[in-house]
UniProtKB/TrEMBL annotation:
<dbReference type="InterPro" id="IPR049492">
    <property type="entry name" value="BD-FAE-like_dom"/>
</dbReference>
<dbReference type="InterPro" id="IPR050300">
    <property type="entry name" value="GDXG_lipolytic_enzyme"/>
</dbReference>
<dbReference type="GO" id="GO:0016787">
    <property type="term" value="F:hydrolase activity"/>
</dbReference>
<feature type="signal peptide">
    <location>
        <begin position="1"/>
        <end position="22"/>
    </location>
</feature>
<dbReference type="Pfam" id="PF20434">
    <property type="entry name" value="BD-FAE"/>
</dbReference>
<keyword id="KW-0378">Hydrolase</keyword>
<protein>
    <submittedName>
        <fullName>Alpha/beta hydrolase</fullName>
    </submittedName>
</protein>
<feature type="domain" description="BD-FAE-like">
    <location>
        <begin position="65"/>
        <end position="259"/>
    </location>
</feature>
<keyword id="KW-0732">Signal</keyword>
<dbReference type="InterPro" id="IPR029058">
    <property type="entry name" value="AB_hydrolase_fold"/>
</dbReference>
């Protein structure tokens, strides 16, 4: 009874917070057709809450939800962060890995944008594996293009991702300059990765890998291309990593591989590994558990280079 009440209360607070905080919802593709989308789709977006977790699926119209600062920033003035919720590329956990994180940033004077990106789906998309990155690049590009409107320094725009959203954020960090769609406007100035999916190799989170690559999940070239520890270069943005060593969903090796790649390429990086915490904790950590200190560490990291 007490657990159900607590979960229900947390959900109510989350919903009320979302309603109060959300300033504007921006269509990701305001003009013209949405790239890589099949015409004539009738799929309806779904949003449900289970176990206190908001789950959004079947996204066909991607958006950015803007959360404006509620305080003057002493941490990182004129800074913005685009947040990529996780969910194994199957759903978007947009409550605790979206809205709640946005509030944490706005309370510190930082503008937050929660990205509702399309999930790989061959029913509605012509090349599903490219869709999440296409949306993430457009999100960063749109924030940079509208930086003046929101009082943001265009050189202080970061990306944050959780789990599979961490894979997307690290893909954006390492692939913005690759291929015919390369665009410097889509480059994050920094990245924050929590329990991220990084590799599609031996320590991969199989669900995220298989959902993104679909029928091509065993293609060696694609496995290498989307193993982001192999794509880090000197141009990769500085990165902050958080992972629990008892994570049974995404092995801690994922963060370690990315951190080591940053070190090897002289990319400034800071990594915090905690003995316990599991997977998917975001800000919902247990009192007294060491992993509950990650937000303070992240705040100090931001202060160290954004002054």
């Amino acid at each position: 009874m007490h657990t159900r009440f607590t979960t229900g209360l947390a959900l109510l607070v989350s919903l009320l917070t979302s309603a109060v905080m959300a300033q504007t919802v921006l269509p990701l593709w305001p003009t013209g057709a949405i790239p890589l989308a099949k015409s004539g789709t009738t799929l309806t977006e779904k949003s449900i809450t289970e176990g206190g977790i908001l789950r959004i699926s079947d996204v066909t119209t991607p958006t950015l939800t803007v959360y404006l600062p509620t305080a003057t920033s002493s941490v990182a003035p004129k800074t913005a962060v685009m947040i990529c919720p996780g969910g194994g590329y199957s759903i978007l956990a947009s409550g605790h890995e979206g809205t709640e994180i946005a509030k944490w940033f706005t309370d510190r004077g930082i503008t937050a944008f929660v990205l509702k990106y399309r999930l790989p789906d061959d029913r509605t998309q012509t090349l599903p594996r490219e869709v999440p990155l296409t949306d993430a690049m457009q999100g960063l590009r749109l924030i940079r293009q509208q930086a003046g409107k929101y009082g943001i320094d265009p050189n202080r725009i970061g990306v944050m991702g959780f789990s599979a959203g961490g894979h997307l954020a690290s893909t954006l960090s390492t692939h913005y300059d690759k291929g015919p769609k390369a665009d410097e406007l889509a480059k994050p100035d920094f990245a924050i990765l929590l329990y991220p999916v990084i590799t599609f190799g031996e320590k991969a989170h199989g669900g995220s890998r298989d959902k993104l690559l679909g029928a091509d999940k065993a293609d060696p070239a694609l496995l290498n291309f989307y193993s982001n520890e192999k794509q880090v270069s000197a141009k990769t943005p500085r990165t902050f990593l958080v992972h629990a060593m008892d994570d049974k969903g995404v092995p801690v090796d994922n963060s370690i591989l990315y951190y080591q790649a940053c070190v090897n390429n002289n990319v400034p990086a800071e990594m915090h590994l905690y003995p316990t915490g599991g997977h998917g904790f975001a800000l919902r950590t247990k009192p007294g558990e060491s992993v509950s200190g990650w937000p303070a560490a992240c705040e100090n990291w931001l202060k160290s280079f954004l002054k």
